[in-house]
Amino acid sequence: xxxxxxxxxxxxxxxxxxxxxxxxxxxxxxxxxxxxxxxxxxxxxxxxxxxxxxxxxxxxxxxxxxxxxxxxxxxxxxxxxxxxxxxxxxxxxxxxxxxxxxxxxxxxxxxxxxxxxxxxxxxxxxxxxxxxxxxxxxxxxxxxxxxxxxxxxxxxxxxxxxxxxxxxxxxxxxxxxxxxxxxxxxxxxxxxxxxxxxxxxxxxxxxxxxxxxxxxxxxxxxxxxxxxxxxxxxxxxxxxxxxxxxxxxxxxxxxxxxxxxxxxxxxxxxxxxxxxxxxxxxxxxxxxxxxxxxxxxxxxxxxxxxxxxxxxxxxxxxxxxxxxxxxxxxxxxxxxxxx
Length: 339
Hints:
Elements: E1 13-17, H1 50-62, E2 67-71, H2 81-88, E3 95-100, H3 105-115, E4 119-123, H4 129-136, H5 142-154, E5 161-166, H6 175-185, E6 188-193, H7 211-217, E7 225-228, E8 238-242, E9 248-252, E10 265-268, E11 273-275, E12 284-285, H8 287-291, H9 296-308, H10 314-317
Parallel strand pairs: 1-2, 1-10, 2-3, 3-4, 4-5, 5-6, 6-9
Antiparallel strand pairs: 7-8, 8-9, 10-11, 11-12
Helix pairs in contact: 1-2, 1-9, 2-3, 3-5
């Protein structure tokens, strides 16, 4: 039977971070001054093995999880990732997806599709190279990310979704060009309010461009977007369809609008801790449980105990007001991967 928490929310969606490493140093996620050459990432022995991830995924699926999204860090820097996807693809009735910065997609798209991956979401914060490079902070060009999207589309990893984090004073001028470009490409662009996840990104409320502002900046006139119903219960991105019927965009109002009421997501970090909220203070250790000889029944009971007892509703309490709590860093599961 599906698990229900204290607020009557089912567990349907599981995000699994396969690595804490990334080849970008995005200013809102892994700023270079914090995650520099001397930063100590997790040792190989500390992260979950593919077998451990698959075992957990099967047990979560038995509790009603129907969608698994692989994240990072940047998941494609994890060696032999298609092997994990092949293992996960054997779990019945599972929507298996991945969020990536797109940099390694040209190399891996075919292997990912052949392994059983169904679709991808790609992070891109601007079409302007100067702006995008200032945000990824490793001098990576826009053209290479677009190339990654096209490689994914060519092998059938579709529909392609594109996530854009909007930060005031940095890339709000890219909102309209991004909307127009991906409308023509036929990809679904989703705008994400700059979130107060962790502490290393220097978040301030003044840096947030609200979803309401973003809507006003997208094509005025006959093509202006209008809100439509969600695809499913618990969908975080608000859907907006262009009035002429040519495509849609998503709005993830993660700061200005509460989105906890029908949240059905849990997250497993690379070292095997389960978090029931994006803004969580502490996780529940599944790695030690597995490595200390727990049976499937033991793990299943622990999953049930954690989810059935959780009552997180961070965004309803006001995210900005709670910024000083000891929240888990965004780089544990990559901001763009949660939606």
